[in-house]
Amino acid sequence: MKMKKTILLILLIISFNASAQFKNYFRNKTMRIDYIHSGNAEEEHYKLDEILKEPHWGGSKVNLIDYFDYGNYKFHVYDSASKNLIYSYGYSTLFREWQATDEAKEKSKSFMESITFPFPKKTVNIEFYSRNKNLDWEKQFELTVDPGKAHINKQKRLKYKIIKVHKSGNPNQKLDIVIIPEGYNKEEMDKFKTDNKRLSGYLLEADPYNKNRDKINFWAVIAPSEESGTDIPGENIWKNTITNTNFYTFGSERYLTSEDMKSIRDLASNAPYDQILILVNQKKYGGGGIYNFYSVCTSDNENTGFLFLHEFGHAFAGLADEYYTSDVAVEDFYPLDKEPWEPNITTLVDFEDKWKDMMGESTPIPTPVTEQYKNTIGIFEGGGYVAKGVYRPFQDCTMKSVTYDNFCPVCKRAIQRMIDYYNK
Ligand SMILES: [Zn+2]
Fold first, then answer.
1. Which domains does the chain have, with CATH numbers?
2. Longest C-alpha distance within the chain, in Å?
3. Most buried by CB count within 10 Å: which residue of 200, 274, 286, 357?
4. 284-294, pLDDT tens digit by residue?
5. 206 CA distance to ligand 1 centroid (A)?
């Protein structure tokens, strides 16, 4: 009994310290830093674009330091006076995927990117890191911001009404997903509202999200586009839409993304959010998902439920693709002599921290793809776009094939851990 009381007291002190830490350093608003990320296959450069103040902070006030270490990039925020690390966050980018294409071997290109963190009360130093080819962190860029003196843009661009699609509580203690309508014209706003209900249902009814319905908020921004649909360059179809998405990203027909990060962030800032979903008013099969960046999917495909879960798996939980047969526009995405950071694939270089604790002792490595091991957690060869040298934990999964509500146990655990992170 005494033991239990002590543990409870310790937990109370820890959470009190964490929220005291938040109050010490931050306001319940967001600082957003837009920067230009440019380069080619071999090099990268950062340049500041602008600093903005946004009205809501949707993230945790307790988990301020990102303990996952996922993503190809991260940033650290230090209190300038004490040099204390007060916030950190990992993410990936479209630029990184472009760097792995043939085009990046011949030319340079720039991408708009953004980071957000709670609005600091005092001067902060922000350090930007990226993983090198050995997947080790390297510092790339640094900024000092005095919130009292810096030129900070406080105007509200792309200001729109928001609606609650599914509300379970205080945004600081919930996973907040903001849905941005893409290619819905003025007359289609009622369709967007109906689509929101259906989309949020796909997530809230699938395992393991169905066990966490009371930990998730869905918001939607009521922002019409000039025209309906989106760009399909391969069919010479071009539409004037609010986030400028297009199919055929890096030449891959079904890869649907946007490079217009400024509009996406401006629209998202109408709501408190942790994750951005761009819902494209379209029947054609397509989508994209990048870790802590955004997810995109089409609204009216027969596989929209799968598309949303799969892309959101990338964007929210840092899950890798477990498939290896479809052709994708990137080459040698995972170095085979390094352990990838994604929780659901391994090169066996450093398997200890992956799903070893979930495996039976007698399961053979590699695990044969036979009926006997159909529902067994193992180490199956093939994943991360290659048939050899990258392994996945289960024979089938929503991260492997077009199957709705079929996450493998390893992906489910990774999703649950991330939900828990946002629920503090
Ligand atoms: Zn999986």
1. 23-153 (2.60.40.3250), 162-321 (3.40.390.10)
2. 71
3. 286
4. 999 999 999 99
5. 14
User: 410 CA distance to ligand 1 centroid (A)?
Assistant: 6
β-pairing, 44-54 vs 152-153, is parallel
Q: Supply φ then ψ for residue 207, to 5 degrees.
A: -75, 130
Phi, psi (5° rounding) for residue 397? -170, 155
Ligand 1 centroid to residue 323 C-alpha, Å = 10
**pLDDT at site 20:** 81
Distance (Å) of CA 167 to CA 73, 175, 219, 258: 31, 10, 8, 28
CA of 5 to the centre of ligand 1 (A): 39
Structure tokens at 272: 């408190």
- The number of beta carbons lying within 10 Å of the beta carbon of residue 173 is 16
CA 153–ligand 1 middle distance (angstroms): 42
Q: How far is CA 14 from CA 17, 25, 173, in A?
A: 5, 17, 16
Angle between helix axes 304-317 and 409-422 (nearest 10 degrees) is 60
- Whether residue 37 contacts residue 111, with contact meaning beta carbons closer than 8 Å, is answered with yes
pTM over 0.70: yes
- CA of 306 from ligand 1 middle (Å) equals 13
How is residue 397 written in tokens?
Answer: 């999964």
Going by their DSSP bridges, the two strands 175-182 and 275-280 should be labelled as parallel
Q: How far, in Å, from the CA of 422 to the mean position of ligand 1? A: 21
What is the Å distance from ligand 1's center to 130 Cα?
Answer: 26
| CA distance linking residue 247 with residue 112, whole number of Å | 19
Report how far ligand 1's centroid is from the alpha carbon of 397 (Å). 5
pLDDT (tens digit, 9 = 90+) per residue, 237-250? 999 999 999 999 99
pLDDT in tens, 326-379: 666 556 778 999 999 999 999 999 999 999 999 999 999 999 999 999 999 999
Is residue 26 within 8 Å of 140, Cβ to Cβ? no
Q: pLDDT of 20-50, one tens digit each? A: 889 999 999 999 999 999 999 999 999 999 9
